[in-house]
Design goal:
Endonuclease Iii, domain 2, Endonuclease III, domain 1, binds iron/sulfur cluster
Amino acid sequence: MKNKQEKIIKINNLLLERYGEPFRQKNLPGPVDMLIATILSQNTNDANSFRAYNNLKANINGWEDIVDIKQQKLEKIISVAGLAKQKAAAIKNFIKTNIREQKKISLDYVRDMNEQDAISNLTRFKGVGVKTASCVLLFALDRNVCPVDTHVHRIVNRLGIVEATTPDKTFYQLNENFPEKIAHQFHTNLIKLGREICKPAKPSCAICPIKKHCVFTGKNFDKNITAKKREFMLLDNVEPAGN
Ligand code: SF4
C-alpha cells in the first residue's frame, strides 16, 4: 500500500516537471453544473462537449428551464456531443428527480457526505456512473478523488499502480488511500500524457517522462515520434448556467 502511494507521488512529480501545475478555475462550478457538463462529455471529446454545454446554456436562463424543454428539442441542442438521446434523457431525469426530492435544483446536500456516500447517491441517477460522480467530487467539490476515464484506466494499469479490467474497478483500487492533495494534478496530467504520448496503440515510450516507472510489456520505442500538445480540459472550464 505504501509502495503504491510512493509510486503515485513520484510519477506525479515527474508529470509536474513535464506539464506543470494544471490550470484550475478560481471559482469552482457548482455540483449541478459539473454533473450536467460531465454527462455531456461522455464518449466524446472536450471540444464537442464544451460546445454542447455552451449551446445548452445559451438556450436556457437556468437549469430549471430544462423541465419544459421537449426531449427532441433538447437532443437537438446538445447533438454536437453525440449520444443525444441518452444524454438528453439523463439530464432531464436528473433535473426532474432533483426538483422532486429537493424542491429546487441543488446538489448542495452532497457537500456534507463522505466520498463513498456521495458517489452512491449520485450514481442513483440514470446515466450517472462512477466516473461522472467522481468528476463532480473533484472538479466541483474539490475532494481529493481521482476520476478514472479511459486514459487514466489505461495508464495506471500499464504503470502497474493497479491491476483492473474496467475503469470502475481501477477507480476503487486507485483511490484507496490516494496521496493527499494531488488528485487534480495527477488526473489532469495523466490525461495529457494519454492524449499526447501514452496512446492506446503505439505509445511513444521513447519520450515518456515516466517510463522508468512503467511495467507495460508492450512498450514502443520507435524513433521519429512527436507529441502533439492538446491542452484544453473541459471540466476545468465549466461555468454555471445563467452566466
Ligand atoms: S512508458 Fe510507454 S506505456 Fe509506459 S506510461 Fe510511458 S508511454 Fe505509456
